[in-house]
Amino acid sequence: MLINTVTDDALAWQESALCAQAGPEFFFPAPGSSTREAKQLCNACEGRVACLEYALANDERFGVWGGLSEKERERLRREGRDRG
Ligand code: SF4
Prior knowledge:
This protein has helices spanning about 1-10, 25, 35-45, 50-55, 70-84. The chain is an all-alpha fold. It is globular, with a radius of gyration of 14 Å. It has one domain (about 1-84). The structure holds iron/sulfur cluster. One of its GO terms (cellular component) is cytoplasm. GO terms for molecular function: 4 iron, 4 sulfur cluster binding; dinitrosyl-iron complex binding; DNA binding; metal ion binding; protein-disulfide reductase [NAD(P)H] activity.
């Protein structure tokens, strides 16, 4: 079925997700905590671009996705809106 194929393709990046080997506290740090280590892992992750696209498309508000923090993703969204 086409819908399943699209969904499977859209989520294929999760199969190579490096964060699956790290604890959730790593990618969902307490407010004010460093996100540096999580971002370093993202930079080595094959699915980084697809992960970021997923987070933006699904309006993920919390944690590090695709190497960007919540604030960095919000800035990207704002810049996209400003460009129209
Ligand atoms: S880019 Fe980062 S958050 Fe996304 S799957 Fe890879 S390690 Fe996980």
